Amino acid sequence: MDVVWARAPVTAREVCDRMTGAEERAYTTIMTTMDRLHRKGLLVREKDGLAWRYAPALGKVEFEKALADGLAAGILQAHGEVALSAFVDAAAEVDEGLLDQLAQLIAQRRKGRG
C-alpha cells in the first residue's frame, strides 16, 4: 500500500519493481494481492492497455484509522474489560501523556452523546 500511496496510479508491475526487502516477491503474487485489495474496496482501478492502474480508495490516515477501529472493536468484543485494562496499561507504558489524551477523547465522546 505504501507504494500505491506514494506513486498512484500504478500497475502491479510498477509495484513489484519498487518492492524491496530481504525476500523477492513474485509479480503474480503482487498482481493477485492488488486484485484482492480491489475486490475488498481498498484499491480502485482503471484499465490502461492490457494492465490495470491502481489507486488507493482511502488515504493512508483514513486507512490506518479504519484498520485500528476494526482491530480495537474485535479485541474489545472478544476480551472486554481485560482488553480495556491492557490498552490503558500499554498507553501508560508508551507515554503517560496518552492517558491524558484518552481522558480527553472519552470526555468528548460523552459530551457528544449527552
UniProtKB/TrEMBL annotation:
Kindly give the InterPro entries that the UniProt entry links to this protein: BlaI_family, WH-like_DNA-bd_sf, WH_DNA-bd_sf
Q: Name one Pfam family in it.
A: Penicillinase_R
Could you state one GO biological process linked to this protein?
negative regulation of DNA-templated transcription
- The entry's keywords: DNA-binding, Transcription, Transcription regulation
Gene Ontology MF, one: DNA binding
- Homology family: Belongs to the BlaI transcriptional regulatory family.
Protein name in the entry? CopY family transcriptional regulator
| Species per Swiss-Prot/TrEMBL record | Cystobacter ferrugineus
State the organism's lineage: Bacteria, Pseudomonadati, Myxococcota, Myxococcia, Myxococcales
